[in-house]
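note to self: dont lose this again. the chain is below, predicted strucutre after it. 130 aa total, dont forget to put it in the shared folder this time
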Amino acid sequence: MRQPNDLLALYAQWRRLSELEGYAIHEGEWCQVQEKQDLKSLLKEQILTVTESWQTACPDANRWRQEYERQFRPIVTELIQMESRNSELLSQRQMAVRTELERTCAASRNLRGLRTAYTMRSTEQWSSYS
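---
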């Protein structure tokens, strides 16, 4: 029965991708984040296929469930925690980017106001000489 070993390997890949995704989020490497998420999406399909194959091969559903819980619940719990950390980190990064964008927009508005003020004065001064 290869399915449990295959599942262990797939979960190990997921763990590694989640670690790399967390690093990419921290560094603001958004293309890398997307790439890791795409790869995890493909892994999800493989995990479901292997799990279903293993479940089908096991004649006793209760026994299969107990074996799955015993072997994989701690792994899945760890992966869920990693996903939660990455999600929280992503939210923090988004908030920081939003704050920076708001500052940039405020600075842009201030510059437009200054330009408008100086342009009006300059035009008024030239018209007083004509």
